[in-house]
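W.,

You were right to be curious about this one. When I first looked at the sequence I had no strong expectations either way, so I just let the prediction run and decided to look at it fresh. Below is the sequence, 126 residues in total, followed by the output.
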Amino acid sequence: MLRRSHPHCYEFYTGVADFQALSEAEPGTFFLTDYLVRHFERLIIKGLGLDRHPHLLGDYFGNYRRLVHLAQTEDAALRTKAEAAAERLGLHFEYRFTGLQGLGRFLEGAAASEDKDGQPQHRLLA
């Protein structure tokens, strides 16, 4: 797999190795975090215009095979909502509990990274 110089946003939750494994196992994977599950209707359905143009579903999601919910919290209602989102998009559902540790590790590492000369480089992350 071609490695990017910066992590993919979902790697913040899963870690690099797990994200690569998920992506390589099924390149046609659509990921949802807890936030995206909570706001699925507004961000995905309405945001992509699928509420007004449902015929576009295949254009947007025709190459996807599964939806992976990267859950930061263990919330049964949210998991049910994610399963419904997968069904609505016609995708196989998979649940992965990630918690927030991966995001925390990324933020800690980014805040205390070094520049090209090995000097501490503290960055404000907002």
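Here's what jumped out at me. The mean pLDDT is 85. And, maybe more interesting for your project: DSSP finds seven helices and five strands in the chain.

Coffee later to discuss?

I.
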